[in-house]
Amino acid sequence: MKPLVGDSPLLSSRRVHPADTVVTVPAACIAGGRLSLGGEGIVIMAGPCAVESEKQLMLTAEAVRAQGATILRGGAFKPSTSPYGFRGLGEAGLKLLAKARDAFGMAIITEVMTPTDVEMVCDYADILQIGTRNMQNYALLDAVGKVRKPAVLKRGMAATIEEWLLAAEYMLSQGNSQVILCERGIRTFEKMTRNTIDISAIPLIKRISHLPIISDPSQGTGHRDLVAPLSLASLVAGADALLIEVHPDPEKALKDGAQSLTIEQFRQLVPQAQAVAQAIGRTITGVHRSMS
Amino acid sequence: MKPLVGDSPLLSSRRVHPADTVVTVPAACIAGGRLSLGGEGIVIMAGPCAVESEKQLMLTAEAVRAQGATILRGGAFKPSTSPYGFRGLGEAGLKLLAKARDAFGMAIITEVMTPTDVEMVCDYADILQIGTRNMQNYALLDAVGKVRKPAVLKRGMAATIEEWLLAAEYMLSQGNSQVILCERGIRTFEKMTRNTIDISAIPLIKRISHLPIISDPSQGTGHRDLVAPLSLASLVAGADALLIEVHPDPEKALKDGAQSLTIEQFRQLVPQAQAVAQAIGRTITGVHRSMS
Amino acid sequence: MKPLVGDSPLLSSRRVHPADTVVTVPAACIAGGRLSLGGEGIVIMAGPCAVESEKQLMLTAEAVRAQGATILRGGAFKPSTSPYGFRGLGEAGLKLLAKARDAFGMAIITEVMTPTDVEMVCDYADILQIGTRNMQNYALLDAVGKVRKPAVLKRGMAATIEEWLLAAEYMLSQGNSQVILCERGIRTFEKMTRNTIDISAIPLIKRISHLPIISDPSQGTGHRDLVAPLSLASLVAGADALLIEVHPDPEKALKDGAQSLTIEQFRQLVPQAQAVAQAIGRTITGVHRSMS
Amino acid sequence: MKPLVGDSPLLSSRRVHPADTVVTVPAACIAGGRLSLGGEGIVIMAGPCAVESEKQLMLTAEAVRAQGATILRGGAFKPSTSPYGFRGLGEAGLKLLAKARDAFGMAIITEVMTPTDVEMVCDYADILQIGTRNMQNYALLDAVGKVRKPAVLKRGMAATIEEWLLAAEYMLSQGNSQVILCERGIRTFEKMTRNTIDISAIPLIKRISHLPIISDPSQGTGHRDLVAPLSLASLVAGADALLIEVHPDPEKALKDGAQSLTIEQFRQLVPQAQAVAQAIGRTITGVHRSMS
Fold first, then answer.
1. What is the pLDDT of residues C165-192, one digit of tens each?
2. Burial of B98 (0-12, 13-18, 19+ CB in 10 A)
3. Cα separation of B154 and B241, whole Å?
């Protein structure tokens, strides 16, 4: 692979920082109370695409926690292609996420969409998420770069890996060193899947960067039946975490039901993921080791 | 072509609003003092990619005005793929644009990148521009939807036409009816051009929408030698305006010099554009009719 | 633009052969009996996607000839994505094309799909066509390179311009110097059009190569309502010919009816094309000059 | 996922043929002398991109056989983007492949590029390969459909999954039921990898089709350092075989050296692949089970 850009390597480059960056977040459900992302353990982040109601969120959180997820995902601010679509519960959704955190000891990841919301989202979330449409929203990147919270940066829908790393550089250069990259599929001509998840980006990022890299097989495929195989593929390719949409009743989901696992499907996936993780010498944090 | 989305047509649809939307902006350099965009006349917007200095801007503005451009383009806030690239002069750049407007009677178009800047940019600009990276920055679209200034919405780098119209709908549904669409090239596998300018989007938009549609052959190709033929192609395909980068010394431009026309190249382009416009029964606003 | 490949330029390069290549074909309908392609004149090639019957072909040929088309297109061997689709009349279709040539004095262009058919197709056709799916069918390119008939090489569905020129090089290096390139759209993520016609490829090819370049707005867009504006766009961008699908009853066409012009639409297009051609100092061969 | 095409399912569809198709080939190196592809066992196909010399081929064959590869790959007819590139040894290359088969008891897979070569290639090969550029070379598909040899059909560079299955249908409808699909990456805008390997295509094909599906991580990535992680990812996603380029001295390879594993890299990959295969309840044919 060619060196990244110009002569001076980026802050995200392994040439600048050879050791893996390990991000830590508080998670009472884990022994020691802190969860590491980017080290040996693999983390499962799961939950609904969007926070819809207290019942929906609590039911999902309890179920995914019981199977081994340690981070709860759920959108309170939802980017919607149409202005007439569901745009999320806003701060009320953040409050529900905080309630779930307290109830189940999980860490919380949720999206922030605009600079003026960064402070409020930081009041509730353990990890901020910058979505695919905002990968090059530079005012947002600058604002998230100024806080000291871990931030997941999703790859833009049609971003090259170089552009993605340069977007991460916006945050790193503002002083936020806890940047986590997330492969979520790129846009191609293929029509049977929602996106084409670029699994090769995972080991490639690992080689050229020290930042943790995670995978979103739900957005990456758009079909719940493809989430399990692409989760396993992401793991063996080197992903540090999986970000998986789970819904107690996907047919009634307000957003992205087609790509949400049922709770039962999620229950089946975790031991498969654990077995595959162990085959490559890793383990899923918070899940008992399988008896192979 | 299939109907756009669902059963209820969008505010941008010709089914809702059969007549062409015509946007008007003040322009002292035009007889009557107001410039129409989206009617019979074709408008030329020209100027540097980025405002770099008073000398650079004034020199360019004077030259493009002399050839028939009636709207001056120039970025004060510049999206830069790298955080270490030139990001524009900010408000100082806006002040220079206002000075050029006063000096040459041209209207001003300039980019706004984040909601909190909308009010300030409105103080100086006649037309706001939302760039390709921000096509789905919904907080920005909402904010621009709330003001009553014309706004050019560039197509996202990998946006479908449907997504682009839905982004316009964010502004239309907030009450800003003066939305102008701008084709600026999409991302493909081709490496010899910066983007692939989708000329077919121009007549397609004309058929399904009443909004004005303009073309940016500079961003669309990335090569100054391709700007003239793609300008002519855009016109005969139905574009209501051309947005063209011109720089007095492209080799020394701080941004996008490779795709900027020299003043001499721009001088040669305008009469060709006028001849071609007349061949399809239109004329370029502010340019004397050619003797064919 | 960067130089093409390596240090030694290709046979297709303007560095090797600075003057435009002009291809000539016999056409009794033209004064002098020979038609030039790649010179000042612009040529219109029109006809049905597929030869379906004698009546359909003769009716179309007569109509397009009457409006100024000098080359008749029509497929006897049709590539079909599905094996169960219409695959053409084969040699019977070639005989019908020859009959139309005799009746109307037009030159004939038709596709050849496999090396063993090259000799037979040469017996009937004036210009061979290599389709998009066969752009890198090297045995076919070698075979067509060995004959001395003009050959149109369509750009592959996802071919870069460099790969396209290298495919042309297969024929040129075998001694066939009468290669004509045809832009017919590339595959992108856009769903409203069948392909995205890359108009910028036309002037780019003109700059780096001496070969004639033509445009196929029917395949390039997939919608008959977009064929006229994209025909005009192709002309002002520098195309040497237009390849247009016309059908007497598109709704009943066995292939690609949605992108075929009606005879009436074709009748309206030609004078527009002539007016636009004149605006850039060219003229359509075989069509009376318009009174502007 | 939507049903594939129209109302009548394809011959490749699981609705027509619910059970997995299992292809068998003679392989003396395996107990029983026959190798199954598409059943429980996973097959490793390895060897050089192109057959260059007897020494190169024999050395590679011996090494990959020793590690567990049971099928030897090697191109005698090589598609080359440039006519001036290496195009393979032709029949001399086929003879070397046959010699390696005899020496090591492996089955042979090699590419056929044109219908008139099908008979000759069948004389030497156990499995025919149709390359990405020929996925829609219908005369070739028809010819391979008429023989009774297993055939690997690589996905076209920009083919949708639907088009790929329709290309397979050409062979199936001619009576050749031993069709094997091969994902080898698709063309996207990403520049750091040669192609973007679409891992999601593997489980998707498994769901909608009964045909075996294999993966080519060498072509799919273009970088030898990415071959191992993408091999593992392909396996856990459901691939029935891996097709891997191995060269004794990649720096001196006549073709595609950058993506060829060294023999040592291949030696390291096989036990990892075996461990991962076992984690999902499969095993690599011809490799001793690992002690986990």
1. 999 999 999 999 999 999 999 999 999 9
2. middle
3. 13
Q: Which residues of D touch C113 (CB under 8 A)?
A: 138-139
The values of phi and psi at residue B277, to 5°, are -60, -45
Min Cα distance C212 → chain D (Å) is 20
- CA D234 from centroid of its chain's CA atoms: 13
Beta bridge partners of B71: B45, B107
Q: Does residue A205 sit at the D interface (CB-CB below 8 Å)?
A: no
Task: Provide the number of CB pairs (under 8 Å) joining chain B to chain D.
Answer: 8
What pLDDT digit, counting tens, does each position of B88-117 carry?
999 999 999 999 999 999 999 999 999 999
Residue type at C274 in one-letter notation: Q
DSSP designation for A136: T
pLDDT in tens, chain D (292 residues): 443 445 579 999 999 999 999 999 999 999 999 999 999 999 999 999 999 999 999 999 999 999 999 999 999 999 999 999 999 999 999 999 999 999 999 999 999 999 999 999 999 999 999 999 999 999 999 999 999 999 999 999 999 999 999 999 999 999 999 999 999 999 999 999 999 999 999 999 999 999 999 999 999 999 999 999 999 999 999 999 999 999 999 999 998 889 999 999 999 999 999 999 999 999 999 886 554 4
**C137 touches D at CB < 8 Å:** yes
Beta strands (DSSP E) in C33-80 are 34-37, 41-47, 71-73
Q: What is the DSSP letter of C275?
A: H
Q: Which of C160, C223, C229 sits opposite B191 (nearest CB)?
A: C160
| CA distances in angstroms from C106 to A160, C58, C101, C277, C283, listed in the order given | 49, 12, 5, 21, 18
Nearest to A158 among B81, B82, B187 (CB): B187
- Strand D127-130 to strand D71-73: parallel, antiparallel, or no bridges (unpaired)? unpaired
Written as one letter, the residue type at C63 is A
Shortest Cα distance, chain A CAs vs residue B161, angstroms: 12
Are A164 and A153 in contact by the 8 Å Cβ rule? The answer is: yes
Three-point CA angle B84, A210, A233, nearest 5°: 120
Which residues in C lie closer than 8 A to residue D113 (C-beta atoms)? Answer: 138-139
Is C5 part of the contact surface with chain B (CB cutoff 8 Å)?
Answer: no
Which helix (H) or strand (E) covers residue C143, if one does?
helix C138-146
Neighbouring C-beta atoms of residue B12, cutoff 10 Å = 26
- Taking contacts as CB-CB distances below 8 angstroms, the residues of chain B near C236 are 229, 232-233, 235-236, 276
pTM for the model stands at 0.96
Q: Is C139 within 8 Å of D113 when comparing Cβ atoms? A: yes
Contacts of A158 in chain C (CB under 8 A): 189
Contact criterion met (CB < 8 Å) for A116 and B115: yes
B104-114 b/e (C-beta count within 10 Å ≥ 16 → b):
bbbbbbbbbbb
**What number of C-beta contacts closer than 8 Å exist between A and B?**
71
Per-residue pLDDT at C290: 52
d(CA C230, CA B202): 10
* Strand partners of residue B154: B182
